[in-house]
Amino acid sequence: MEKSSFSLVFGSSPFVKILDFFPGFDEFDYSTAQIAKETETKWETAEKVVDLLIKKRL
Prior knowledge:
By secondary structure, the protein is an all-alpha fold. It has helices at about 5-10, 15-25, 30-40, 45-55.
């Protein structure tokens, strides 16, 4: 996955990678497994980040 301007500014943590994923892929519903694959993060980590984003209503 190529680094975006967002990642260059905020770093490449799994949280940032997943946040960066959504603006480019907002037209479809994605499973946690698909998000993990596209962002090159572990499934367990992606699940924690997605749960946190849902709780924060992001």
